[in-house]
Design brief:
Strand order of the largest sheet: 1-4-5-6-7-8-10-11
Radius of gyration: 24 Å
Helix content: 10-25%
Strand content: over 45%
Number of helices: 1
Structural class: mainly beta
Low-confidence stretches: 1-28
Number of strands: 11
Distance between the termini: 64 Å
Shape: globular
Largest sheet: 8 strands, antiparallel, barrel
């Protein structure tokens, strides 16, 4: 009888340890350590803006006003590599956010490009971001307090009677407020 109880106890401990060992680690809030949620200060540095030239050509650096804005970000993740959500800027626009090796924020900009005839063409703005560790100068998608990347705005091809799109790119950084 003692042998049976001992075997039953050992089996119960082994089963408990096995269940604990194979159970996936649960993120406390379901964000898998990558979700961006909260308020961020965003700085697009116009001092280093560049405009793309024709295919095969170079890039031209030019200064434009830098832009500082505040974003409220809300994302939901179903895995560490699949998150989607919404970004609201204090500049009055709302866009989508998703993760795919980098964070991508997209929104349309009405009347972005002034045309020679006095009209305006729309633009599409995309922020491409990744977590950054300033101490080690290394990229890490799991750094949710400091992100760096590019702010790229592009007109559609054919806008303003030009065969090629106008593309303006600036470095950008996000810091959790």
């Amino acid at each position: 009888m003692r042998g049976f109880r001992l075997a039953a106890t050992v089996s119960a401990i082994t089963l408990s340890a096995t269940v604990c060992a194979v159970a996936p680690p649960a993120a406390a809030d379901g964000d898998f350590g990558v979700a961006l949620n909260g308020t961020y200060r965003v700085f697009s540095d116009g001092q280093w803006a560049k405009r793309g030239m024709a295919p095969g050509g170079g890039e031209v650096f030019f200064r434009i006003p830098s832009v500082t804005q505040t974003w409220t970000i809300s994302t939901q993740c179903v895995s560490p590599i699949e998150c989607v959500g919404e970004v609201k800027s204090d500049l009055g626009w709302t866009g989508t956010i998703r993760i795919d090796d980098h964070w991508y924020v997209d929104h349309d900009v009405p009347n972005w490009l002034p045309c020679p005839d006095g009209s305006f063409a729309p633009g599409h703005q995309k922020f491409i971001l990744t977590g950054w560790n300033p101490e080690t100068a290394q990229r890490t998608i799991k750094n949710r307090d400091f992100l760096m990347g590019r702010d790229v705005t592009k007109s559609p091809s054919g806008a303003c009677g030009r065969n090629q799109p106008v593309v303006v790119e600036m470095p950008v950084r996000l810091e959790r407020v």
